[in-house]
């Protein structure tokens, strides 16, 4: 299989650029006709799931702020801070675009479990099981998703577990920083032998893209999907 492309936080390095993790960035990714688009999910203090990368939105710590206060502020492109509900609703309009849902780690396990439960429920509510895949740096989050829904696709991001260790955890694959694959040049082929899927972030350098392709990587996640998609 040819290496496929996933847009990192949507496709936002457009001309003119838009804001990462915005609804516009999701729409832009769809136009490229690529495999999928990735986005980051956090939970407000009162349990609303939001699309945002950083812990802080302006000077507000998302996990310590109620949604009513967060939604008063706009993204740089003028959009409201999108909720997971809105993102899935929009994503459902583009059934050929996979939605790579990154659940951000939280300091407290019970909050992480709550985040997982809510995200799983939203995906099921919209019947998007086959269009969505989950990624996380938190081992607990990955394990909880599999505990709730063993058939949901889960990929671990943090990089310290070997393909065999990932297989033993019954995850579907690895989505590691490219430096991990360059340091462990047998991991992609080992993963394949074990039936695991491989993805790498954030690949913005065409030479690294070439090297990973040579190693047989299945997917790369990039800020420049428009530039790498035809290479
Ligand atoms: Mg992310």
In words, what does this structure look like?
By secondary structure, the protein is an alpha/beta fold. It has a domain at 4-162: TIM Barrel (Alpha-Beta Barrel), CATH 3.20.20. 35% of the residues lie in helices and 21% in strands. It has helices at 23-32, 67-70, 84-91, 109-125, 139-148, 163-168, 178-183, 187-193, 206-215, 225-228; strands at residues 4-7, 36-43, 49-51, 56-57, 60-61, 98-103, 132-136, 153-156, 173-177, 197-201, 219-222. Helix 4 (109-125) packs across helix 5. The radius of gyration is 17 Å and the shape is globular. The two termini are 15 Å apart. The structure holds magnesium ion (MG). Magnesium ion (MG) binds at residues 38, 40, 102. Magnesium ion binds at residues 38, 40, 102.
List keywords for this structure.
eight-stranded parallel barrel; alpha/beta; 231 residues; single chain; 11 strands; binds magnesium ion; TIM Barrel
